[in-house]
Write a structure and sequence with these properties.
mainly alpha, Growth Hormone, Chain: A, 2 domains
Length: about 425
């Protein structure tokens, strides 16, 4: 008969081995819900032609998708914690796929808003927040890497579907494309979700590689702490900074004269967008892994300064097509890591028990960033008739947030952990 310590060690070994299977299943779920956001631009023309709406009216759908995904994330996180990871992630993947099927039959803008925007936003939000919350529990010693890996799945997943969807639109039309890919992506997500489960707490708690354990803090108590709101402000500033530039890229590329030039035998703008998507995905696990070894705040300071410098160089060499393409990738390499650094830092600070719901509240910062980064940047450009003020705000936010991470967040978190360590 095995002794209790030996049995516990065996359980721990099995848990630590199976968590890589959990990461794989979570990655597939994230890839399955990435297309509604990242290939949306392919549908705007056909939808405008079918429904008779202007581009601005059609784009309301995308705004609804992002707003529902982010602003309802605390509720979605609570549902995951309350009813179980497998059931809720399956529901989220199903809703995401169903949104495309319903959108294929939409005959009015209202129906498009409700299907693609509302149903799709709720579904993708459940999956995104739920998977990130699950991974930071499964990987207490590698939270940055795990959160970054699944976030990369969301950032890069649409690379698998972009060309097939584009070809399908040309060959079978928008309605059939939405129906086929909605059903296929929903089914893939549903199947992958059946392999998900919560980690056995007792087994993972014995992992000696975990640097520290903290008292689990419920959302109500977390929202009363200055430490949370500091992270929220920092996340909002970084989200705004990145989206100020990335959401306006096609517009300022045109003003910089980059839409009609060739780089390495390809059109500069599509090439830049392709490189950007790759870098935006790779940076999430990369800087997450660095933060696991070098510290969250140190990595934040490095990454945010890196992006600010890259943006400065990008603006100063905007008349050089080769540098425009290459530096756009460097900018994305310095921005996408916020989706691994902030959730891992939050869980390190406030514990794992309420990790999903807690991250849901922090993730609302992304929604605020999307509002300021899109319309506000466009208005700033319209008012000043220059892109320099837009870049100046973005660069300033990068450098301010880097300073806050190193000089303020680092000190406050150290004090918090000293008081609340187990």
């Amino acid at each position: 008969m095995k002794s209790a310590p030996a049995s516990l060690e065996s359980s721990r070994s099995r848990a630590l081995g199976s968590r890589w299977h959990q990461l794989s299943a979570g990655l597939i779920c994230m890839m399955a819900i990435s297309s509604p956001q990242y290939v949306w631009t392919l549908f705007t023309g056909p939808l405008s032609a079918k429904l008779g709406g202007s581009l601005a009216q059609i784009q309301v759908t995308f705004s609804l998708l992002i707003i529902l995904q982010t602003f309802f994330s605390p509720v979605q996180g609570y549902l995951v914690d309350r009813f179980g990871i497998k059931q809720l992630i399956a529901t989220g993947c199903g809703l995401s796929g169903l949104s495309w099927i319903l959108a294929s039959q939409a005959s009015s803008l209202t129906e498009l808003y409700l299907s693609y925007g509302v149903v799709g936003g709720l579904g993708t939000g459940i999956v995104y927040v739920g998977i990130v919350g699950l991974m930071v529990r499964w990987f207490p010693d590698r939270r940055g890497l795990a959160a970054g890996a699944v976030a990369a799945g969301y950032g890069m997943g649409a690379m698998v579907t972009t060309f097939p969807i584009s070809n399908a639109l040309a060959s079978v039309g928008m309605e059939t494309t939405l129906m086929i890919f909605g059903a296929a992506l929903g089914l893939v997500g549903l199947l992958a979700s059946q392999f998900l489960r919560q980690p056995p707490a007792e087994a993972l708690q014995t992992d000696i590689r975990v640097a520290h354990s903290v008292v689990d803090v419920a959302p109500k108590q977390m929202l009363k702490t200055p430490l949370f709101w500091l992270m929220f402000i920092m996340f909002t500033m970084m989200s705004t900074s990145g989206l100020m530039v990335t959401s306006q890229m096609a517009s300022f590329a045109k003003d910089f004269g980059m839409t009609q030039v060739m780089v390495f035998g390809m059109n500069a703008l599509p090439l830049a967008l392709t490189i950007d998507r790759i870098c935006n995905g790779l940076t999430r696990p990369l800087f997450g892994w660095i933060s696991d070894h070098w510290g969250r705040e140190n990595t934040m300071a490095l990454a945010f300064c890196f992006e600010g410098i890259a943006m400065t160089l990008w603006l100063s060499t905007s008349d050089n097509p080769v540098l425009f393409v290459l530096l756009s990738g460097v900018v994305f390499l310095g921005w996408g890591e916020i989706f691994s650094l902030f959730p891992s830092t939050l869980t390190d600070t406030f514990g794992t028990r309420h990790a999903t719901t807690n991250y849901g509240f922090l993730y609302m910062a992304q929604g605020i960033g999307s509002i300021f980064g899109g319309p506000v940047a466009a208005l700033l450009h319209q008012y000043t008739e220059s892109w320099i003020p837009v870049f100046a705000v973005a660069i300033s936010f990068d450098l301010i947030t880097a300073a806050l991470a190193f000089f303020v967040l680092k000190r406050l978190r150290a004090s918090w952990l000293a008081k609340h360590a187990l």
